[in-house]
């Protein structure tokens, strides 16, 4: 039985990679650093924005002070342009509506900064589709540490035995498993089948409708 579905954000609900890459490359260009392709950025994201900033920063620009300054630069640029190219993946809004119609509560659990998550979800999905939206908060370890996920499930009153975690990277599969949840991989995201399979995904979704079918099958 599945009564709650928890979703990763970037690469699962929203295709955010172009805006993330544009902001990252803008920062690199401003500082005279090498820039990267979108495909390279797909391999840098997933562990939170501070880790992304560290990954695109040259080795000689990774002192704590420099990383803090670069993080501030990136965050300001990204926040101003986070809706330029970002869009929901096809089929996601319909999936969320179908899950809601079946009485499934849905929530977002992301490594993106918490201050950014609520606004971006409201912009693309309106209000009412998610029972909670949580990004990374100060003092809470990022995924795949399950601490924040436990707190979210407690807040939702979600039964771990009836909760599914969905995401597009090994970080998400590990997050689910670290919290003793089944974890489903989204193949349309940033990483792909090989990584999700290697991480031990309990199921794979080719398209969003596969998530609905999986939930329906488990609830028969």
What is this structure's SSE topology?
Blueprint: E1 4-7, E2 14-15, H1 17-30, H2 38-44, H3 49-56, H4 64-81, E3 87-88, H5 92-101, E4 105-113, H6 114-125, E5 132-136, H7 147-156, E6 163-167, H8 170-178, E7 183-186, H9 193-198, E8 203-205, H10 209-218
Parallel strand pairs: 1-4, 1-6, 4-5, 6-7, 7-8
Antiparallel strand pairs: 2-3
Pfam families: HAD_2
Keywords: Hydrolase
InterPro entries: HAD-like_hydrolase_sf, HAD-like_sf, HAD-SF_hydro_IA, HAD_2, HAD_sf, PGP-like_dom2
TL;DR?
This protein has 220 residues and is of the alpha/beta class. It has helices at residues 17-30, 38-44, 49-56, 64-81, 92-101, 114-125, 147-156, 170-178, 193-198, 209-218; strands at 4-7, 14-15, 87-88, 105-113, 132-136, 163-167, 183-186, 203-205.
| Widest sheet, order of strands | 5-4-1-6-7-8
Number of distinct beta strands: 8
Task: Report low-confidence residues grouped into runs of 5 or more.
Answer: none
Helix share bin: 40-55%
Keywords, separated by commas or semicolons:
alpha/beta, Rossmann fold, two-stranded antiparallel ribbon, 47% helix, HAD family hydrolase, hydrolase activity, hydrolase
Describe this entry's structure for a reader:
Keywords: Hydrolase. The chain is an alpha/beta fold and 220 residues long. The protein has 2 domains: 4-15 and 87-218, Rossmann fold (3-Layer(aba) Sandwich); 17-81. The chain has 10 helices and 8 strands. It has helices at 17-30, 38-44, 49-56, 64-81, 92-101, 114-125, 147-156, 170-178, 193-198, 209-218, and strands at residues 4-7, 14-15, 87-88, 105-113, 132-136, 163-167, 183-186, 203-205. The strands form 2 sheets. It has a 6-stranded parallel β-sheet, sandwiched between helices. A two-stranded antiparallel sheet has the order 2-3.
């Amino acid at each position: 039985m599945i009564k709650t579905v928890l979703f990763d954000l970037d690469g699962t609900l929203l295709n955010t990679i172009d805006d993330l890459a544009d902001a990252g490359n803008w920062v690199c260009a401003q500082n005279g650093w090498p820039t990267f392709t979108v495909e390279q950025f797909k391999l840098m994201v997933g562990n939170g924005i501070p880790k992304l900033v560290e990954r695109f920063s040259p080795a000689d620009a990774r002192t704590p002070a420099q990383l803090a300054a670069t993080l501030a630069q990136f965050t300001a640029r990204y926040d101003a342009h986070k809706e330029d190219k970002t869009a929901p993946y096809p089929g996601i809004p319909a999936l969320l509506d179908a899950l809601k119609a079946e009485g499934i509560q849905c929530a977002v659990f992301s490594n993106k900064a918490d201050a950014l998550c609520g606004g971006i979800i409201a912009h693309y999905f309106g209000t009412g589709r998610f029972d909670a939206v949580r990004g990374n908060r100060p003092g809470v370890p990022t995924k795949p540490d399950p601490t924040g996920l436990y707190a979210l499930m407690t807040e939702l009153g979600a039964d771990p035995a009836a909760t599914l975690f969905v995401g597009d990277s090994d970080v998400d599969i590990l997050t689910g498993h670290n919290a003793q949840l089944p974890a489903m991989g989204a193949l349309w995201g940033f990483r792909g089948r090989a990584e999700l399979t290697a991480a031990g995904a309990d199921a794979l979704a080719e398209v969003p409708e596969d998530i609905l079918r999986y939930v329906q099958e488990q609830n028969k």
